[in-house]
Amino acid sequence: MGYKKHTSHFCSSIKQSHKRVNKVTNLLIVGAGNGGKTLLELFNSDPSINIIGVVDINTKAPGYQFAKMLKLSTSDNFNDFLKHPLDLIINVTGSSQVQENLSKLKSAKTEIIGGVSAKFIWDLIEVREQKNILEEKYKTVIAQSNNVSRDGLLIGSSPLMIQAADLASKVAATPSTVLITGETGTGKELIANNIHKTSHLKDQIYLSINCTAFSKHLIESELFGHIKGAFTGALQNKIGLFEKADGGTVFLDEIGDMPLDMQVKLLRFLQSGELRPIGTTENKHVKVRIIAATNRDLLQAVKQGRFREDLYYRLNTFIIHLPALRDRKEDIPLYTHHFLREAVNKVNKKVTTISPEAINYLINYDWPGNLRELHGVMERAVILATNEQIEIEHLPCNIQNDPKAEFVMDTFSDAKAKVLADFEHKAIVSFLHQTNGNISLAAQKAGLPRRTFYRIMEKLNLSRTTFTQQGNDD
């Protein structure tokens, strides 16, 4: 009741003040601490309020200095302003003596808010401060998210994935055709979508099609369209995907499974930009960016006669390879907690963490289904969780029974150290293989000083002669 009373008093004071000439409230603020400063921030940009002055005996007070910056009149004595026509005085000093003096000296036409009634002012200030705190928290969360993601794409710290993300970022600004390779579930469609969203075509249409979703007779119609009566069941004209996406981007998923006769027509389209709907002799010209993806070894498919060589070389202008999850195990904890949050939001269940033992099992599992499999495992675990923590028993049996995951670590730090050591060994060996044992080139590829790279080799008991027949460095 008290709060409502003071709210009513404040509102009525403002309303009465607005009834005066020109509907502008002449306001005096007494007290220039944090509360006074906040009032200045609230009222300074309001055209219906004219701040006559700001008063405080402490001329170093934040509100006092802020008022001077705004070029408002200031004083350490409120008597300097009482001669002005005032509609409203807000006293936020908290002093009953100041309130009493103001009440005695003010004009009878001047409203005053202070003392107990000032509680509403403090409530306003508190609401504003809470709003600022929430905004800052939101900015912090966004900043933290950007540390592990780029434009909505979860990257992590794996060098292989960072390299893939950098390639995607560089090619996005170009019109070049892109081929994304990698096992099923590694995130090829996410990369394709990210390329489009960060490209010059981001405001244009983006369409995707899975080449395995249609029979060889229907996929041509899906891509190029048809006219009414072109074949049995063609009851009306159909615009193909390429024509719909004119000016935008088309994502062709699982292109390695496209029928050979369809590959010929796709190659012709990539070369000329021309398409011919089924049932017509008229060519149409469209401009579409193509991003393709496959989990197949296309070069091997070329050798086996299952994929056209000319189409392969047309597509491989710019290749981005996504590593399997087992090759970026250092990021499994990051992906796990990301998918945990997604599952919690979807299932609407309070699960906040996952035990170190369960994380250990996830890290040591090989993930044949990659990120897609991990996503499903985390959603299942959230559903099965009986409290706020996911345990080993909430994981699928195939993960629980995986021999590589059965050893028990004392702590999460131990598990993390083992994974990092395993990654370090694999990465150094990979760089040495790529450079035929040339330590200087390997260090350059790894982004490490040569001395640091050599120390890691010594720690891992690796010799460059293992990677080159000549055994020559530099």
In CATH, what is the homologous superfamily of the largest domain?
P-loop containing nucleotide triphosphate hydrolases
Using the coordinates above, name the CATH class of the largest domain: Alpha Beta
- Please indicate the percent range of residues in DSSP E strands (runs of 2 or more): 5-15%
Low-confidence stretches: 1-22, 137-150, 469-474
What is the averaged pLDDT score?
A: 82
Helix share, percent: 40-55%
Q: Which CATH architecture of the largest domain?
A: 3-Layer(aba) Sandwich
Q: Largest beta sheet: what is the strand line-up?
A: 3-2-1-4-5
- Please report the number of helical segments: 20
Global outline: extended
Major sheet description: 5 strands, parallel
Structural class: alpha/beta
Description:
With 474 residues, this protein is of the alpha/beta class. It has helices at 2-18, 34-43, 62-69, 79-82, 96-105, 119-148, 159-172, 188-197, 216-224, 241-244, 260-272, 298-303, 309-315, 332-347, 356-364, 370-384, 397-400, 412-434, 439-446, 450-459; strands at 25-30, 49-55, 74-75, 88-91, 111-113, 149-150, 153-154, 178-181, 206-210, 225-226, 238-239, 249-253, 274-275, 284-285, 289-294, 319-321, 353-354, 389-390. It has a 5-stranded parallel sheet, with helices on both faces. Strands 9-12-15-8-16 form a 5-stranded parallel sheet. The protein has a two-stranded antiparallel sheet with strand order 6-7. It has 4 domains: 2-125, Rossmann fold, CATH 3.40.50.720; 154-321, P-loop containing nucleotide triphosphate hydrolases (Rossmann fold); 325-408, Orthogonal Bundle (Helicase, Ruva Protein, domain 3); 415-466, Arc Repressor Mutant, subunit A. Helix 14 (332-347) crosses helix 16 (370-384), helix 18 packs across helix 19 and helix 19 (439-446) packs across helix 20 (450-459). The relative contact order is 0.07. The longest helix has 30 residues, at 119-148. It is built from 20 helices and 18 strands. 48% of the residues lie in helices and 13% in strands.
